[in-house]
């Protein structure tokens, strides 16, 4: 069943696999695209350590994915706050365009120059605010966005500091713009997809659920830990970061509760999601997953998962 999102993306289903730092690669991205969604490279896709050259790995990953699928593939451009240097996103954009990428997930406050360059290249721009508001969504449309992602506090990854949940964020953003909106944050099964559509979304943007799929590069022990955990195991370790419980994260959660405002920075110093989620060092770093993780109890193939999530669109 086609709708405005599938027409814009050139996909069978209105589903985007969300970027996840360190945890995407050519295999996952191509599997999503081959199963009818839009596979999206996140930061550090396919990279194993900071010692490796990030740009070279990125180019290699794009070429590998293009060998595995003929369908559309997206690249993430993570923007810094307005007024700060955007040269890294600029470089990722230029190199991705040169390799034929025509879909960009642009995260952060809208930047006039980057938006203009994506649109000038004839590419599709999917805009995702880190703290979505109707005003920012309207600005994204003004600057040429083709699709808007409305993300609620339920999500995995860096969470919106305003604390508004997916259930209230999606209709608010859908009412503010006339272009299609995709819902993000806590969508782990078909009930989440149906709820998103009922709230006015025309597609879904799914991250955490893909962490536990056969093709995901998440460490096997971390997949097991996610499947064995529930929302009660999540700790708020910073205003914009949750993690599954481990010794180090309990310390950070306590420091945060006692008024320490540097705990987000501390999660970054520990390596972010890389040690625990990619390398399986469960006691060392953060394990970031959405608040609906009780629903993540199996490790399907990407095709099985997408088939199930998209059962109303067959
Ligand atoms: C482990 C993990 C890492 C993430 N890393 C990034 C990132 O680097 N950049 C980004 O824009 N979003 C990142 N996200 C957020 C996702 O792109 C997406 O917004 C989110 O996963 C959607 O909500 P869900 O997890 O409930 O499906 C990350 C999410 C997770 C779970």
TrEMBL record:
Q: Which SUPFAM superfamilies match?
A: Inosine monophosphate dehydrogenase (IMPDH)
Taxonomic path: Bacteria, Bacillati, Bacillota, Bacilli, Lactobacillales
Please provide the record's keywords in A-Z order: Flavoprotein, FMN, Monooxygenase, Oxidoreductase
Which Gene3D superfamilies does the protein's record reference? Answer: Aldolase class I
CDD domains from the UniProt entry: NPD_like
Provenance organism: Fructilactobacillus cliffordii
Record protein name field: Probable nitronate monooxygenase
- Its domain of life reads Bacteria
Q: Record's PANTHER family?
A: 2-NITROPROPANE DIOXYGENASE (PTHR32332), 2-NITROPROPANE DIOXYGENASE-LIKE PROTEIN (PTHR32332:SF20)
Functional note: Nitronate monooxygenase that uses molecular oxygen to catalyze the oxidative denitrification of alkyl nitronates. Acts on propionate 3-nitronate (P3N), the presumed physiological substrate. Probably functions in the detoxification of P3N, a metabolic poison produced by plants and fungi as a defense mechanism.
- Pfam families recorded for this chain? NMO (PF03060)
Q: Which GO terms describe its molecular function?
A: nitronate monooxygenase activity
Matching entries from InterPro entries are given as: Aldolase_TIM, NMO
């Amino acid at each position: 069943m086609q709708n405005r999102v599938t027409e814009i993306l050139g996909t069978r289903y209105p589903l985007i696999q969300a970027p996840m730092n360190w945890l995407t690669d050519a295999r996952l991205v191509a599997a999503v695209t081959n199963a009818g969604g839009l596979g999206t490279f996140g930061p550090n896709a396919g990279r194993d350590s900071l010692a490796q050259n990030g740009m070279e790995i990125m180019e290699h990953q794009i070429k590998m994915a293009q060998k595995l699928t003929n369908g559309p593939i997206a690249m993430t451009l993570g923007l810094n706050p307005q007024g700060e240097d955007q040269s890294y996103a600029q470089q990722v954009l230029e190199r991705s365009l040169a390799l034929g990428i025509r879909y960009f997930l642009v995260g952060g406050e809208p930047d006039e120059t980057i938006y203009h360059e994506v649109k000038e290249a004839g590419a599709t721009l999917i805009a995702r605010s880190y703290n979505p508001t109707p005003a920012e969504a309207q600005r994204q449309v003004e600057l040429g966005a083709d699709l808007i992602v409305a993300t609620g506090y339920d999500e995995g990854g860096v969470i919106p500091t305003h604390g508004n949940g997916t259930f209230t964020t999606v209709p608010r953003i859908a009412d503010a713009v006339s272009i299609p909106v995709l819902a993000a944050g806590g969508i782990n099964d078909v009930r989440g997809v149906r709820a998103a559509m009922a709230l006015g979304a025309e597609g879904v943007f799914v991250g955490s659920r893909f962490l536990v799929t056969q093709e995901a590069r998440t460490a096997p022990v971390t997949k097991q830990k996610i499947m064995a955990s529930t929302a009660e195991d999540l700790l708020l370790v910073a205003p914009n970061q949750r993690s599954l419980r481990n010794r180090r994260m309990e310390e950070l959660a306590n420091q945060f509760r006692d008024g320490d405002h540097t705990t987000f920075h501390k999660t970054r110093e520990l390596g972010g999601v890389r040690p625990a989620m990619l390398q399986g060092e469960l006691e060392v770093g953060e394990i970031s997953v959405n608040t609906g993780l009780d629903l993540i109890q199996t490790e399907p193939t990407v095709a099985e998962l997408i088939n199930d999530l998209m059962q109303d669109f067959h």
